[in-house]
Automatic annotation (TrEMBL):
It comes from Pseudonocardia aurantiaca. This is Gamma-glutamyl-gamma-aminobutyrate hydrolase family protein. SUPFAM superfamilies: Class I glutamine amidotransferase-like. One of its GO terms (molecular function) is hydrolase activity. Keywords: Hydrolase. PANTHER family: GLUTAMINE AMIDOTRANSFERASE PB2B2.05-RELATED. The keyword Cell cycle does not apply.
Length: 252
């Protein structure tokens, strides 16, 4: 079977209902539904759907620092996409187009990542999650990508995903999952700038934007700037995460 591929997937697949438990960091937002309008913990269903399709069992980690305690009970972590990180976390003044800070979510996800690294469990950072991985390890961000690359193709308009062709390093973890050239869906106006010590760039767009990084010396700590959860029929990155969780749990 090709690298990065799995057989029949989902809860009826090879891992069954006892597949590895994947913790997904979630949003804290004000929402309205029915007669209610209040704060809620939420996450697009594309994330848990992708975990299930890859043979894992999804659980949400709310944006409160106490949620990091649950990392001791999961087999892998996904740092989900979402709003901009606070520039103060990497020592920069805010760009005029940088979004309002979400200090509770920032602090929670840093704590979740630190606990996951301490335990040595797999981590997949998606978009904001890749940026958080970089910042938590000492890197910085480009706060508005069009300023750096001269176009808005990575974020064509609100709520619309752009398509980017990414060149991936052969032999990397991402390359093993998706190959050395992959067309991806992206929606981001920020990106990695100075890459943290220990992170290795393994994917770039044609304009030089960092699209994938991996933590050197760790079996599976990967950040991608794109949104793999939006590819309804392409489970490869999430399948790689679930496979890494199974290997880690078995002591392999």
């Amino acid at each position: 079977m090709p690298a990065g591929q799995v057989g029949p997937v989902g809860l009826n697949g090879p891992n069954g209902p006892n597949g590895p438990v994947i913790g997904l960091t979630a949003y804290g937002e004000q929402v309205a539904y029915g007669v209610w309008h209040h704060d809620a913990v939420l996450l697009p269903t594309t994330y848990p759907d992708m975990v299930v399709a890859a043979g894992g069992v999804p659980v949400l980690l709310p944006p409160m620092v106490e949620a990091a305690g649950a990392v001791g009970r999961v087999d892998a972590v996904v740092l989900s996409g979402g709003p901009d990180l606070a520039p103060s976390r990497y020592g920069a003044p805010p760009h005029p187009l940088t979004g309002a800070p979400r200090p509770e979510r920032d602090a929670t996800e840093v704590a979740v990542l630190q606990r996951a690294l301490e335990r040595g469990i797999p981590v997949l950072g998606v978009c904001r999650g890749a940026q958080l991985l970089n910042v938590a390890l000492g890197g910085t961000l480009v706060q508005h990508v069009p300023d750096a690359v001269g176009h808005s193709g990575h974020n064509p308009s609100p709520g619309v995903f752009g398509t980017t062709l990414v060149s991936v390093t052969p032999g990397s973890r991402v390359g093993a999952a998706v190959g050395t050239s992959v067309s991806v869906l992206c929606h981001h106006h920020q990106a990695l700038d100075r890459v943290a010590d220990g992170l290795v760039v393994t994917g770039r767009a044609a304009d030089g934007t960092v699209e994938a990084v991996e933590l050197d010396g760790h079996p599976f700590v990967v950040g991608v700037q794109w949104h793999p959860e939006q590819h309804a029929t392409d489970h490869r990155l999430f399948a790689a995460l679930v496979a890494a969780a199974l290997v880690n749990a078995s002591g392999g």
